Amino acid sequence: MAEAVQRNFGDHLRWWRKRRGLSQLELAGVAGTSQRHLSFLESGRATPSPQMVIGLAAALNVSLRQQNAFLQSAGYAAVWREGRLGAPELAQVDAALDHILAQQEPFPAFVVDRHWNLTRANGGAVRLVEFVLGAVPAGPVNLADALLSPSVMRPYVVNWKEVALHFIRGVQADAIADASPEASALLARLLSYEGMRELSHSAALEEAPRPLLPIHLRKGETSLRVFTTIATLGTPQDITVQEIRIESFFPMDELTAEFFHKSRA
User: What is the pLDDT of residue 4?
Assistant: First the structure.
């Protein structure tokens, strides 16, 4: 059993090292160990301590979720908790998120998890969705699906190909970094939408990129141009906290700013 656990960890370590494009010598240097010891760990000839497991996982720049997987592959218990928003232990996080959403008013802001599932939104976000779609969708909402699906936001995004290309490349990068079945499943689902696989293989659409890519929305005679920022919470020591993203929308012209201010009145 011990030998099987060691081989499992060694295979896991080797897989991530190669995924990061590192030699044994390079990883050993970053992790503060010797190439010889790292070779023994990968072959199962040496057993890592929990501290060595965490050190190697950190050197490979994997998430807290993946650090737990590293520990479990070596036969140790997971150390990083996965809290739940709304639970007492994450009360300060909830308060911070509510503050950020309120401060963004009247402009939209969304909180999503690592797979773009919506967890909360401010009033500006609700008003924007109601304006574009007529009503807020019932049930769980995934912002990635909403943007890329032909039946939701796509008909209202004037420069949809530009926006979709930028977004799907971000999801592809997330899937490579995360290397989880869930991330791969999300990417596969998004690429299954009409035109997405072909678009993902295309080159950049602009020879001289602008400083920011606008999202140009149009419904009837109303035209809105916004850009977004993505924020995360610093120094996370909880899986849920690390995976939270706050996407905030900002107007790119006076007419768009005026629309959001008036919609709040």
Answer: 45
- CATH 1.10.260.40 in the chain: give the residue spans: 2-73
CATH class of 2-73: mainly alpha
Q: How far apart are CA 132 and CA 127, in angstroms?
A: 9
For domain 88-264, the question of CATH label 3.30.450.180 is answered with yes
The whole-number average pLDDT for the span 182-193 is 93
Instruction: Indicate the residue type of 50.
Output: P
Higher pLDDT, 249 or 265: 249
The neighbour count for residue 30, using CB atoms within 10 Å, is 16
DSSP character string of 49-83: -HHHHHHHHHHTT--HHHHHHHHHHTT----S---
* Cα–Cα distance, 107 to 60 (Å, whole number): 38
Q: Kind of pairing, strands 118-121 and 215-219?
A: unpaired
Does residue 23 sit in helix, strand or coil? coil
Whether the pTM exceeds 0.70: the reply is: yes
Give me the mean pLDDT over the 26-47 stretch: 95
Instruction: Name the amino acid, one letter, at 47.
Output: T
**Delimiting residues of CATH 3.30.450.180 domain(s) in the chain:** 88-264
Q: Which of 22-26, 144-148, 181-185 bottoms out in mean pLDDT, i.e. has the lowest? A: 181-185
